[in-house]
Structures are given as structure tokens and as C-alpha cells.
Amino acid sequence: MGMPRSLTLASLFACLLFGWLHLHAGKPNIVLILADDVGADMFSCYGQKGSAKTPNVDRIANEGVRFRTCFAPAICAPSRALLMTGVYANRTGVFRNDMWAFDSRGKLFTDRPSWPKLLQQGGYVTAVAGKWHCGAREPWDEHVGFDEYCLWEGPDKIKSHFGKNPVASGARKDLKLSDTRYWYPSTVQNGKYLKVDEDGFGPDQRCDFLMGFMERMTKQKKPFVAYWPTVIPHGPYSTTPDHGKPMDIELKKPNPKGLSKEARARVMNHYNEKQAQRFIYLIEYMDKLIGKLMAKAEDLEIYGNTYFIFCADNGTANTAKDRGVERGVHVPYVVCGPGIKRLGATNQLTDFADVAPTLLEMAGIPIPKDVSFDGQSQLPFLTGKTKTHREWIYAYTGSVQVLRTKHHLLEARSPLLGKPKGRFYFTGERRFGRGYERAEKDPAHAPALSLLRRVVDEMPSHLEEDHPFWESKYGKRWLQNNPDRSELARKQLYNHPDYSRYDESD
Known about the structure:
By secondary structure, the protein is α/β, with parallel strands linked by helices. Helix content is 32%, strand content 15%. The protein has helices at residues 5-25, 55-63, 76-85, 89-92, 115-121, 155-162, 202-219, 261-299, 326-329, 355-362, 379-382, 446-458, 473-481, 485-491, and strands at residues 29-35, 65-71, 125-130, 148-152, 187-189, 192-193, 224-229, 306-312, 330-331, 333-336, 344-351, 393-397, 400-404, 408-411, 423-426, 437-438. α7 (202-219) runs parallel beside α8.
């Protein structure tokens, strides 16, 4: 005689539930942090002069691996698009921040899935908090793959989404700010805009959101990914809750008219010093918030089963950002977590194309057969299964390409503008874009130059002749204004009029 039907169904349900819980119990969590507009040399674990004190980033580095050489595109949108998809800008079309080129096909997350979407499909709950700036689709779009979000958006953009300006509807209606990413933040969270707090500090708000998300997911026994693309330390260089008053957001730039040359220099130097100090304070405050996320994981007793990854989207603003040189694309990258060896500083190479496949392997999710990445998972190297990672790395930002091997650097090749010669260096063990040796004419370095040139030649152009951009009024205007692309390439070789300032041999 068989078991009662109700009991059979109950037993079956119990088995399925047990199986689901067993499947997910051991899945690690992932916390990915992306700083905004700051190069590798600004963090104490990278040991450069003038670095900020960042004990929590240092802790991640000390408990795992610090890549001495990680490349990302030299400006925000291309960097974030690459991070999300694992595909270079040559293929995505997101190669500049300019809106005419910014995900111009509108297919960044439909032609290829993002890692949040793939992780979501693999049983993870995903959240993003901070700054998006990544293509035509918003992070709450179903194609992107985030379950929850808490995002800084400009008041005008929030008004376009929700019909109200959150700053104008806040406690101080007379307030007019050029920026709301820090004090008096304008924020949209899970389909609603948040009431503006005149004493609120945006980064605190978004960090608290992620900590709440981590706690809820832990109580529900669900594996999660918490992605924090911060607004720190992007300008304007604001005060922080530890270093000034809320309304003292921007330093008023002095007008040195009528002053002597010496007096003018003193005034401007004082202003620049105060700006630089604020920049350091913002980095250190970001590190403090990273420490809060790590402490939360410890309090929840999930720290040992959580990967922490810290990186940044491009080189430091005003000195390196948007420059097609190593200082523009060299970003920090440190990681620790379950199974990762304490390797300390490594000369192995990585770039942002590696992030997506790494996150998938951390989560134990196979790459679908119809999905391909330009990078490869770092995990075999991080866990000691292999001793090497990448032979070369690559960064592309519109008019320039930057490539590296362990000991060589090639700069300034552009499929859009033509292919000027660029610069080729022997770097040895040196990093940070200084003190290299020009090596174009040295036969001893010819094999490395040949390798990097071959990589460049095999990369597809990001704007093929049939791309819809060329039929748009912007594309037609661009062609009309730039009949000689090779000359334009020469002028824009480094995205800066003073090329010599960025010669890596100085």
C-alpha cells in the first residue's frame, strides 16, 4: 500500500527545499567596490609618495592579492561598460562619455549579458548602490540584472523619471547646488526618490543601504552580490562628515587679478593645496566606509565566505584621467576572500575584461556557451592553481589604446582616428608611468613590440563603416569636420595638447 498523496507531496517538497538550501548554503557572497576618478598611486598599499592612508583597502590587499598592474579605460563610461560586460569597447561601442557614442546602438545589455544578469540567473540576489553612468539602460532595467538599487542621480534626471526634483522638494527649497552626490544627496532607491536630508551625506546613505541588504540576504540565507560604484573621490572635492561642514561643498576658486606674479602664485598654490587635501580626505573617508562593510560581514559571521574586491574606474582626475597613457589607465585592484592565497603584491597582469568571468567562477556559475568574454577568470591564479595570469592587457578610450606586457608598454593606437606610431617603452619592473625607456628602435625589444602590434591589428574597430552613427547628424558632422583622420589622430594622440607632459620616460 502506498503512502498518502498529501504525505508524498509534503515529502517531495521537503526534499526539494533541502536540496535548494544545500545548493545555496555554501555559495560565497561578493562585495565589489569601484572608486571614482582615482589611480593606483593614491592608496597606501601601493606605496607612492602622497598616498592617502587607507587601512581597510590595505587589509584586503594584505589578506589576498594586490595587482601592481591593472588596466581600465581612462574615463568613466567605457570603464564601467567593460566592467559590467567583460567586453572591450571595440565591441560594445561605449568608447567615450560623449552621448553620441555612448551605447549608440542601445544594445549594451541586450547583445551580451552583464555579470549581474548571469549571477541573478544562477541564484544570486544582486544590488547596486552609487553611480551608474553605464550606457543607455538604467540599472533597474530587467536586462541589466539588479534586484535592488540605491543610486545617486542628478536632480534633473530624477525629475525626468519621477516628475519631481528631490532637491527642490527637500527641507531647504532655496538651496542650489552644482552637485548633489555628496551633501544634500539626490537619490533614487528601488523605484522611489528619497526625501532629501539637509545633513545627509550621500556615500553614507549608499553604504548603509548595502549593509542593510547584506543583513537581509544573510537572514534569508540567500547568496548575494553587493556592487558599490562609489561617487568618491570624484570632484567637486567636498568636505566629509569628518572634515568640515555640510554646506561647505565647493572651494571658491580665487580671482588673482591685479596681484603680482608672486602673490598670484601664493594664492593659487594655497587653493590647490586645499583641493588636494580634500581629495585625500575623500579617499580616506571612502576607506572608512569600506571598513564598515567589512565589519558588517564580520558581525553577520559571513566574512570568511565573502569575496571583497576593490578597484577604480580610471586614473586620477586633472593629472591622468582621459589621458591615453599608463597614468590614465593604471588603477588599483585588490581582492581577498575564500580560497584566495595571501600572495601580496604581484606583477601578474589583469584588466577589467577579467572581472566578469572572475565573478562567475567565484559564484560557481559556468559561462553559458553563447557568451564570450575578452578577459579570463583571475581565480585560478588567485587560488594558486596557476602561477601566471595574462600575457598582455589592454585599455581603450576612443582616440587611444594602451597595451602592456610585464616589461613593455605600447601607447596611442586608435582604430577610429587612424594608426599613428605612438610610443613604445621598456618598463622593466617599474610601474606608475614614469622612468621608462623608449624602445622602438632597439632590436632586443622587437618581439614584444611585434606582439602588441599584432594585438592592436586584431582588435575590431568600434565604429564599422555600417555603424548607424555615421548616418546620424552627429556622424555626418564629424566626418565633415575631420576629413584627415591621421592628422586628428596626431593631435589627439594623448587626449592632451601637451604631449611631452605625459612622456613616460621623464
